[in-house]
Amino acid sequence: MSRSLRILHVSEAFGGGIVGVVAPLAERLTGAGHSVAVAYGVRPETPADVRNELSDDVEVFPLPWHRRTMREQVRAAKALRRLAAEWEPDVVHLHSSFAGVVGSMALARRYVLVYSPHGYSFTRTTDAPLRRLAYRAAERYVARRVDVVAAVSESEAAQARAGVRAPAVEVVPNGIPELDPGALPTCHRGLSLGWWAWAVPISSVSLTPQGASSRVSPTWLRSNGSAAARRATRASARSNRTG
Length: 243
Prior knowledge:
Elements: E1 6-11, H1 17-31, E2 35-41, H2 50-53, E3 59-63, H3 70-87, E4 91-95, H4 97-107, E5 112-116, H5 129-145, E6 148-151, H6 154-163, E7 169-171, E8 206-210, E9 213-217, H7 225-242
Parallel strand pairs: 1-2, 1-4, 2-3, 4-5, 5-6, 6-7
Antiparallel strand pairs: 8-9
Helix pairs in contact: 3-4, 4-5
């Protein structure tokens, strides 16, 4: 049986649909024996009592992430880096674009990073073309700095591969029958990638003890040679950091 992991979820706008995704996911993961924390920005859409939205076993950490200014993003990145250094997650799951950019900027090559776009902003046809180009550039930056993009549907996965050329993409059913026909994936004991069950089992994540700490190799990635090279680089970097 695989050992328990420490999993940190990060969301800038922790409200609406993001809460509906993270809360049950965190509850299932803690129920499976993992340690889970949620780091979030305090935005107008953030619930007044975040603690009440999550199970008692989930730790919560508000971040200085109140506005969408450049200065605020830098402050949030520094705070997130400090939090990660103190809490020491094995895996960090970044939710939506702002968390993707800030989290990948602050934590890439330090931790295993999973990114869920929750709908790519560059697909919004109501936005101006130049703005959509900027969104796409930001998403390409994120896709190259995380270990895997966890897409909620086949269409989002296609956008990740073709639209931002993400090196590693996993498709995870979102559990909504109208949007994802078919049965939900089986819930495994351990870490997987996804909302309700995280469908890729923990057995595909290698944990190699390095003295008092461990190294995580994201071997669940079904990837081409370039992504395999990224895995080897991440594994080497983490081995050097913990050895």
